[in-house]
Amino acid sequence: MRHLPIGCSILLALAAGASAQDLRRGLVDADAVVVARQVGKAAHDDDVTLHTLQVLLDVRGGGAASVVVLDWPKLALHQRPTPRQSRLYCLQDASRNAAQLGLPAANGPYFKMVGFAGSNPLVGADLDKDPVVGFARLLAAAEAGAPPVDTARAAAAAALGPDAIVRLEATRHLAEMPTLRAKLDGLQWSAFVSRAVGETEDIAYKSALAELCAEQRLDGLYDALLVGLSETTDAGYARTVGRIGKALHGEDAAGRLLARLQQVGQKERRAPLLVALGATNTAAALDALMNMDRAEPAVLDGLRAHRHPRAVEAVDAADRSARKPAK
């Protein structure tokens, strides 16, 4: 596939909510990444607990056979080590905190856990074959100066691999890294598009693939997504496709969706297309939806996905009418 001219970031244009899975960000933000097991726990005072971790594998920056993680248990949202489990730990330097607490430097090094969701996953017994450890090593090698083309190829392989956590994180990492995306070839991009269209079970992954391909502004992507859209039932993914269409094609996104709607007969297959139509947030989409039969629930869903005041008013009116008792 050829590439369309690069404009503003599609990820910014989509303005998606915070990810529930941010392992990649934890790996990049960390001062140290280790695979470890908690072997000790002691209260320093009423506010601070010290967790001793036995390091099983130093991915980068650990520098010791064991480390101490500071934990503030009264902070409910604070991540803390889990006893008797081998986990990947993304750690930030806490030597300054330790000094303020009067902890002996010789008992360190001292760290605290990063706050990113999903940044403390379980790992398997065979660390050399564990996909999460492999992804951590990949990003560590990139941090250490590995050639971008090698990193890009390895990330692409991970993004198309079988592990659900790693493929989602690798896909999002590529979407956030234009220097890596530039190193991928046409065959790899075609594989991403095919997987985005064909994936039916892992919707978060399907959406991430669509956003990755949109970030690269691949020619023909939107039409390919529309062909597969009627085979899905997830409204969140339908809204993602609609927003991608608006980011790539502006007002013309609605026209392409309306053309696809004319080719689809069954109402159940029309539903995701109508939601995507509303999510384009275009004037053409609003006009089309307002002129459709609102007795069809999917039409109201399309209006709900649109942000124009007229769409909001139409949905409110339909809801009020539905609540009126029958005479």
**Could you give the order of the helices and strands?**
HHEEEEHEHHHHHHHHHHHHH
Helix content: 40-55%
The residue-averaged pLDDT reads 90
Total DSSP E strands: 5
Strand line-up in the sheet with most strands: 1-2-3-5-4
Q: Specify the number of helices.
A: 16
- Alpha-beta content class: alpha+beta
Rg for CA atoms: 24 Å
Q: Choose one word for the global shape.
A: elongated
Distance between the termini: 59 Å
Please give the largest β-sheet: 5 strands, mixed, barrel
Low-confidence stretches: 1-8
Percentage of residues in strands = 5-15%
Account of the 3D structure:
There is one protein chain. With 327 residues, the protein is α+β, with helices and mostly antiparallel strands. The protein has helices at 10-14, 23-29, 95-100, 131-143, 148-159, 164-176, 178-181, 186-198, 203-215, 221-229, 235-249, 252-263, 267-279, 283-290, 297-305, 309-323, and strands spanning 32-43, 49-60, 66-71, 86-93, 110-113. A hairpin with a 5-residue loop joins strand 2 and strand 3. It is elongated, with a radius of gyration of 24 Å. The model is unreliable at 1-8 (pLDDT under 50).
